[in-house]
Design a protein that fits this description.
The protein has seven helices and six strands. The chain is α/β, with parallel strands linked by helices. The chain has two domains: 179 residues, Ribonuclease H-like superfamily/Ribonuclease H (Nucleotidyltransferase, domain 5), CATH 3.30.420.10; 44 residues, no CATH class.
Length: 240
């Protein structure tokens, strides 16, 4: 399936736990996390407890929240192609999700629009839908799966494309980029550090930069898989 490159919205989300530490959770949520943690600790390392692994809560939509969504669209062709980036980042998750949903709905005019993320079908897309449901934010048509047949779901996933039908393995975005010879900016942080940067350093600017870098990398991987020229650094444009 050949999708017009200008019809793809590339995205990435960053998530953290809903509280900065286990101790700050209301008692009922402490109990719920402990039950979840029991499943995670079946083969636990020595010294791991529900309390000290609370940092992992951010990857579960029931215990986490979205703090940043970065998006990118492609314009132009060949070596002149550029990527336009926009990010949504704030402490108010409901407002962040509403702003993102409004943008997607405005962009999704005309046929054949797609969303693309790395491992998006297993993480980004369902996480967004779950958190929107929590906050009673209407899920954009392009993101919603309800009532759609598989071939009507306009979601692209670079990890799925790389599998070429093999569903047994997980390949990180960083590994895939290096495998394909795609240069990525030197990381200021990585995914495991986002929680501490958010809760301890209060540095959302670093998180936005990291999230935008991943969006560019997803787009580069997709272009490489399609046999298209990569985007040069000078053709990366960030908009407010």
């Amino acid at each position: 399936m050949q999708v017009p490159l200008s019809n793809i919205l590339f995205l990435d989300i960053e998530t953290v736990s809903q509280q900065s530490s286990f101790e700050e959770l209301p008692e009922e949520w402490k109990s719920l996390w402990k039950r979840k943690a029991e499943q995670l600790l079946r083969n636990n390392k020595e010294g791991e407890t529900p309390e000290n692994i609370y940092g992992r809560a951010g990857i579960y939509a029931e215990f986490g929240k979205i703090i940043c969504i970065s998006c990118g669209i492609l314009q132009g062709a060949g070596t002149e192609r550029k990527i336009i980036l926009k990010s949504f980042c704030c402490d108010d998750e409901k407002q962040l999700l509403k702003d993102f949903a409004d943008m997607v709905n405005k962009w999704n005019i005309g046929p054949g629009k797609y969303l693309c993320a790395h491992n998006g079908k297993e993480f980004d897309f369902p996480y967004l839908c779950r958190r929107m449901t929590v906050h009673a934010v209407e899920i954009p048509t392009l993101l919603h799966l309800s009532g759609k047949k598989p071939w009507e779901v306009n979601h692209l996933d670079t990890m799925e494309l790389w599998k070429f039908g093999d569903f047994k393995s997980y390949t990180s975005l960083n590994l895939l980029a290096h495998t394909l010879g795609i240069q990525t900016p030197k990381d200021d942080i990585d995914g495991s550090m986002v929680g501490d940067v958010y809760w301890k350093e209060k540095s959302t600017a670093r998180i936005v930069t990291y999230c935008q870098k991943d969006v560019v990398t997803v787009a580069q991987v997709y272009l490489r898989l399609q046999g298209e020229p990569l985007i040069s650094n000078e053709n990366i444009e960030i908009r407010d």
